[in-house]
Amino acid sequence: MLSAYRVEQIRAAEESAARVHGWDGLMQAAAAALADVVALRVPSDATTLVLVGPGNNGGDALFAAARLSDRGHRVDIALLDHAKAHEAGLAAARHAGARFVEAPSDQRYVVDGLFGIGARPGLEGRAAQWADWVRDERPYVIAVDTPSGIGVDDGTVPGTAVDADVTVTFGGAKPGLLIGRGALASGELVVCGVGIAEHLSDPACEALELGDGARFAHLVPGPESHKYSRGVVGIEAGSPEYAGAAHLCVAGAQAGTAGMVRFVGQRELCDRVVDRAPEVVAGRGHVQAWVVGPGGIDDPEPVRAALDDDVPVLLDATALTHLPPRLRPDVLLTPHAGELARMLEVERVEVEADPWPHARTAARRWDATVLLKGPRTLVVAPDGRTMVNTSGTSWLATAGAGDVLAGFAGSLLSSGLDTLSAGALAALLHGAAAERAALAGPFPAHHIAELLPSVLGDFLVPTVAR
Ligand SMILES: NC(=O)C1=CN([C@@H]2O[C@H](COP(=O)(O)OP(=O)(O)OC[C@H]3O[C@@H](n4cnc5c(N)ncnc54)[C@H](OP(=O)(O)O)[C@@H]3O)[C@@H](O)[C@H]2O)[C@@H](O)CC1
Ligand SMILES: [K+]
Fold first, then answer.
1. Given ligand 1 and candidates 170, 200, 201, which is best to mutate, with the most ligand atoms within 8 Å of its CB?
2. What CATH number does the domain containing 326 carry?
3. Is the shortest distance between the CB of 34 and ligand 1 below 6 Å?
4. Which domain of life is it from (predicted)?
5. Do residues 173 and 229 share a domain?
6. CB-ligand 1 contact for 15 (6 Å cutoff)
7. How far is CA 307 from the centre of its chain?
């Protein structure tokens, strides 16, 4: 599990840790970790340009530059403001023989030490020019703690930001490195301990990882299991216009942990679904979770009927246009940005620019868990607990992918996972299956459903079914 902390949490932990290790101790730990990553990633005969800002982020970069110079690396340093650069760091870099330059020129490797957790979002003046140079010249960029220009607490990018290939972040991740456009600017994350971990309070948000399978070992059936104990998921999806959504949602559900899939809907659609998937049972009956809405008809009745059953309910697509004013925490809503914008009566661009507060607002307003689909899918519980998904590929922007996700998440709900865990796990494995599919190039959504069982199996290893 990857944990992310807001700036004030990091500051508080830093304060406590500094009493133990000293401020210089923390900075040296950060600089050492940074220098190690640079030494591993940058070819030994290349020149690394280190961009240095006015605060301790620049201090980390300067001490790392000194360490790299000492190890024989060629280092150019560009100071944003000579008068404000970290004094001891500057002396160390000079002493180690780093070269000082006025501005970026033809360097292909860059360390972004302009601003870290002390940053106000948005870059101006020379910092903005240097970020533009990075955007145009596309060198390989290693960001120090955070890419400069992002909102560290929320992942907003109000203006220009440095686009990094990798971000070496200290003490713990930050929400802005996981969420929204900030996440896209961060690239790969390397979290380095600098001695503050034991002083941190509860994370602001978390990301499940593919190594977290042991937490879900209870999903693996045992010798006593039967189809009902594994879970029955009921699906009401598809319409004459979108029959495919029914097939894809069912395929997603069958790829999950449920022992049985029920399908309800018009007779003709039921027949078609059972023709394609003979294991499916058509018609109403007892279920442990409902999925309603993918490609569905514009009718409030299926939503009302599912909510009347006292089991977890996933509402997607057309079902989101028929929400009662208040739901309950075992309801999982799965909008994309456009659907959430409609639900909240705001513009889609507003949701895309700052997704987290919009997902939180909806979760609070409906007292339901909200899974907001996007390049970094968010799952937010009514009490604000948030999981961010970091798996996936841009090829996932394909018709039907959401139908598969809804069915798969519903399957996990029917097996007893709470809405937050089911949403987070479904998003993680759906994204991982898409990454696997993308190895062969673009793919249709049904490939995700075909790959999900093996992705789930790998995730749950070494806890294999007996
Ligand atoms: N966490 C840890 O345990 C450890 C953390 N460490 C490191 O410390 C870093 C935090 O350092 P920091 O507090 O000095 O803040 P930093 O990000 O360097 O920037 C502050 C300066 O930038 C300026 N400024 C800000 N935004 C601006 C803008 N948009 N445009 C222009 N100027 C702007 C701001 O100006 P001011 O707001 O004061 O006017 C101030 O001068 C942290 O990210 C990590 O790298 C390690 O050393 C040790 C372990
Ligand atoms: K930075």
1. 170
2. 3.40.1190.20
3. no
4. Bacteria
5. no
6. no
7. 29
Residue of 166, 109, 164, 106 lying closest to 135 (CA atoms): 164
Count of structural domains, the chain: 2
Distance 142 CA to ligand 1 centre (A): 17
195 lines ligand 1 (CB under 6 A): no
Tell me the pLDDT tens digit for each residue of 194-222. 999 999 999 999 999 999 999 999 999 99
pLDDT at 466 over 70: no
Residue list for the binding site: 56-60, 112, 116-122, 145, 148, 245, 295, 336, 373-377, 402-403
Outline where DSSP puts E strands in 46-145.
47-52, 74-79, 99-101, 109-113, 140-144
Residues 200 and 250 grouped into a single domain = no
> Residue 257: inside a domain, yes or no?
yes
Q: Which of 317, 347, 357 is nearest to 333 (CA)?
A: 317
- For a pocket test of ligand 1, which of 56, 156, 201 has the largest count of ligand atoms closer than 8 A to its C-beta? 56
272 C-alpha to ligand 1 centroid (Å) = 60
Ligand 1 pocket, residue 57 CB under 6 Å: yes
Tell me the C-alpha distance between 194 and 196, whole Å: 6
Q: For 359-396, how does the pLDDT look when each residue is reduced to its tens digit (9 = 90+)?
A: 999 999 999 999 999 999 999 999 999 999 999 999 99
Indicate the pTM of the whole model: 0.96
80: its two tokens = 């944003």
Q: Which domain covers residue 73, as residue numbers?
A: 2-207
Ligand 1 pocket member 53 (CB < 6 A)? yes
Asked if residue 465 is part of any domain, the answer here is no
Same domain, 274 and 299: yes
- Does residue 119 have its Cβ closer than 6 Å to ligand 1? yes
Residues 346 and 416 occupy one common structural domain: yes
With respect to residue 466, please indicate whether it lies within any of the assigned structural domains: no
**Same domain (yes/no): 235, 179:** no
Question: Within a 10 A sphere around the Cβ of 330, how many other Cβ atoms?
Answer: 16
Please state the φ and ψ torsions of residue 211, each to the nearest 5 degrees.
Answer: -90, 5
Separation of CA 196 and ligand 2 centre (Å): 19
